[in-house]
């Protein structure tokens, strides 16, 4: 199976689907699943925006992509989505409408719950393994959403930080067998000294998945070995625009592709195809 991977997209979920459709067109293959490592930008209304998103949306309206394109049905958006048939699975970042997502999650009984009118975008609940099967191939995922509260934070219960019930759910896991760990934050001290989430560090040591995908920290894409000595740890660049490049083209390193056949046969790469540079801040909807 082919799995597209994105980190922070901040409202540009329609762009992510368009890039997957373009990859299919260019390669003659199909994307079976999309994974997104938090900061999806899931805001169902303007009054749910956090201040950072509100401020950034004044500069780039694509930050409001979920609100504009996925809350109410639109024939044009549906036509774009019809070019692919894969679901997008995401974990929560720190920039989401958490109160709204909490309400949806309270009604959920499975590892996933749908958040959009087209039922193409699904939230992967923290600490509940999920197995995705396509034809004769299967892959098991575990998600950890939100970020870890800094030691200096006076209120670690804020909704952008991992919640006590999620921590307990992770603590109750008994040596889970997973292939992919999908998170927003990084392990402690892995990306930046003094930052990260202890629960991610623990899961990587216990489960030793083949891959760990995360985001949150910005900067260029990077693949390296996790501290457990086994997992390929992959942080992609944000799915946004390189404002230093001519034409404000798409950030280099913002899309990855995992080909998964079995636990012993798989390959991940960060895409660098020339066609990715055809997408710019002003023209991406028309490419």
UniProtKB/TrEMBL annotation:
It holds the Pfam family Metallophos. Residues 1-216 form the Calcineurin-like phosphoesterase domain. InterPro entries: Calcineurin-like_PHP, Metallo-depent_PP-like. GO terms for molecular function: hydrolase activity. It comes from the Bacteria. This is Calcineurin-like phosphoesterase domain-containing protein. It comes from Tengunoibacter tsumagoiensis.
């Amino acid at each position: 199976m082919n799995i597209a991977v994105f980190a922070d997209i901040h409202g540009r979920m329609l762009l992510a689907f368009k890039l997957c459709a373009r990859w299919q067109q260019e390669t003659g293959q199909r994307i079976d699943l999309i994974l997104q490592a938090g900061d999806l930008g899931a805001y169902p209304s303007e009054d749910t925006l956090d201040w950072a998103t509100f401020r950034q949306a004044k500069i780039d309206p694509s930050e409001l992509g979920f609100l504009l394109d996925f809350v109410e049905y639109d024939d044009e958006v549906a036509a774009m989505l019809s070019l692919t048939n894969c679901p997008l699975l995401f974990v929560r970042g720190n920039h989401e409408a958490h109160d709204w997502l909490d309400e949806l999650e309270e009604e959920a009984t499975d590892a996933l719950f749908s958040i959009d009118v087209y039922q193409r975008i699904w939230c992967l609940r923290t600490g509940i393994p999920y197995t995705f099967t396509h034809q004769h191939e299967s892959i098991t995922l575990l998600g950890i959403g939100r970020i870890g509260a800094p030691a200096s934070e006076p209120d670690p219960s804020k909704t952008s930080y991992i919640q006590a019930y999620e921590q307990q759910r992770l603590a109750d896991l008994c040596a889970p067998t997973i292939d992919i760990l999908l998170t927003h934050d990084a392990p402690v001290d892995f990306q930046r000294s003094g930052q990260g989430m202890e629960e991610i560090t623990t899961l990587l040591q216990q489960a030793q998945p083949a891959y760990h995908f995360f985001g949150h920290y910005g900067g260029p894409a990077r693949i390296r070995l996790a501290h457990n000595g086994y997992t390929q740890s992959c942080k992609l660049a944000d799915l946004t625009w390189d404002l230093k490049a001519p034409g404000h083209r798409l950030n280099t390193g913002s899309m990855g592709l995992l080909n998964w056949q079995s636990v012993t046969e798989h390959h991940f790469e960060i895409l660098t195809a020339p066609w990715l540079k055809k997408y710019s801040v002003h023209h991406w909807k028309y490419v």
